[in-house]
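Need a sequence for this fold. Nothing fancy.
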């Protein structure tokens, strides 16, 4: 869409599904072998971590570091979805990603790392402690205002509301009938009204119309397919109403929310009650869905490389 200018900070985001897709490409076989060697090198510093898990994490970091010289802003690497409900393991995983980045590319500025962490109670408490240690975090798999409110309290750098249910990316016949456009807009206005520094970075978009409908949002996740479509000319005079601007002045901006950061019970009750538990169900669904590519990625680094087992 050559007539439309969208100011943005270019970010690189890595998830288990993206990493698995890349790991399966023949041209990345050497990268996987190098990741296995990194795993062997760092295993003494990462006691208790299975070598295949360390190799998977190393490969995700290596993939992200390859693109880092070509973009601005952060590179995002996601923690293991199996750790979604453990604050301690999530923190260990995040710090291990930083360690891996420094080991693999000593000259890389690790302050450009942003760790993607699922927006469970445990995950957001991990964000709280990591941000305190100056490790930037993104609260991903976010579906409710309660998660967004807590994410701002614990000072997450970003949140990633999933506009569409994750199923749309795996089931071509499925259409989400409850897209979370208004959540993105209301949360951004709420943050601005109450001077929270956390920024909104919507994810799980399926069309250029959805992208353009979020014009004015802090940042946005756009797939390569949609980026290509956005670069194509469109008919003169066409416009897209922005939900961000359209929701300006909504009552949610000034609504007083209970502080959740030190009240686990209140958060869990409010989160579970929101839309009869749909947000909680979606969080479980995404965490489970991402465990599948994570496990398959483990399989790739533990099977043969040529005639030799690499782990």
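Here you go.
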């Amino acid at each position: 869409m050559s007539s439309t200018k969208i100011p943005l900070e270019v970010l690189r985001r890595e998830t288990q599904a993206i990493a698995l897709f890349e790991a399966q490409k023949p041209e990345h076989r050497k990268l996987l072998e190098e990741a296995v060697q990194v795993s062997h090198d760092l295993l003494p510093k990462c006691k208790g971590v299975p070598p295949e898990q360390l190799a998977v994490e190393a490969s995700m970091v290596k993939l992200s570091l390859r693109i880092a010289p070509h973009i601005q802003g952060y590179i995002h690497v996601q923690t293991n979805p199996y750790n979604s409900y453990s604050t301690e393991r999530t923190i260990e995983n995040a710090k291990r990603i930083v360690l891996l980045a420094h080991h693999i590319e000593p000259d890389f500025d690790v302050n450009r790392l942003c760790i993607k962490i699922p927006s469970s109670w445990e995950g957001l408490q991990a964000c709280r402690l990591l941000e305190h240690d100056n490790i930037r975090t993104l609260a991903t798999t976010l579906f409710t205002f309660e998660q967004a409110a807590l994410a701002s309290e614990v000072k997450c750098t970003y949140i990633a509301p999933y506009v569409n249910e994750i199923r749309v990316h795996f089931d071509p016949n499925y259409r989400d009938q409850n897209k979370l456009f208004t959540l993105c807009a209301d949360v951004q206005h709420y943050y601005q009204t109450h001077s929270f520094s956390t920024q909104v970075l919507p994810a799980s978009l399926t069309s250029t119309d959805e992208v353009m409908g979020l014009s004015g949002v802090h940042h946005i996740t756009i797939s390569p397919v949609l980026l290509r479509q956005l670069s194509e000319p469109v008919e003169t005079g066409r416009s897209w109403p922005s939900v961000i601007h359209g929701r300006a002045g909504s009552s949610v901006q000034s609504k007083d929310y209970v502080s959740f950061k030190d009240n686990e019970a209140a958060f869990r009750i409010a989160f579970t009650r929101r839309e009869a538990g749909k947000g909680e169900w979606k969080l479980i669904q995404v965490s489970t869905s991402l465990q599948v590519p994570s496990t398959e990625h483990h399989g790739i680094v533990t099977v043969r490389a040529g005639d030799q087992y690499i782990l």
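For context: The mean pLDDT is 85.
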